[in-house]
Amino acid sequence: MSDRDPLGEIERAFDVLGDQFGVAAGTVPTDVVDEGDSFVVHADLPGYDSDDIDVQLAEGRTLTISAEQSEESEVESGTYVQRERRRQSTSRTVRLPEAVEESETAASYEGGVLTVTLPKVTAEDDGGTNIPVN
After folding, report:
1. Which domains does the chain carry?
2. What residue spans carry the region label Disordered (predicted)?
3. HSE (CB half, 13 Å, CA atoms) of 58?
4. Spatial CA neighbour of 63 closest among 100, 110, 14, 22
5. Which residues lie across from 115 on neighbouring strands?
């Protein structure tokens, strides 16, 4: 028997590719755009429903995006029942360069892309808020 771990080798290959392209495996690819009076964050979350996505803003400038979904299928073939389960989760935290107005934030999800608009403020707010996804 060989001591090789083919799955481990595949995971290492994905880690190397992710490092080369600047995106770690299992994280959400994210763009942050400074539009002058606000920041707009675009996050790629294909395959999720808007109900699967959670967006949190803490301390007026730390945005956390997380998504989780699970699937279960059951196939009956004669007297044997085959069940398959899949669970997928991902998250990304982005520290914004300036504080944003928590009460004015908005999020939308369309075509697998989450867009979060965060208007800037002049003074930081120490509270946190949950941003609903439409």
Report:
1. 28-131 (2.60.40.790)
2. 67-106
3. 8
4. 100
5. 42, 108
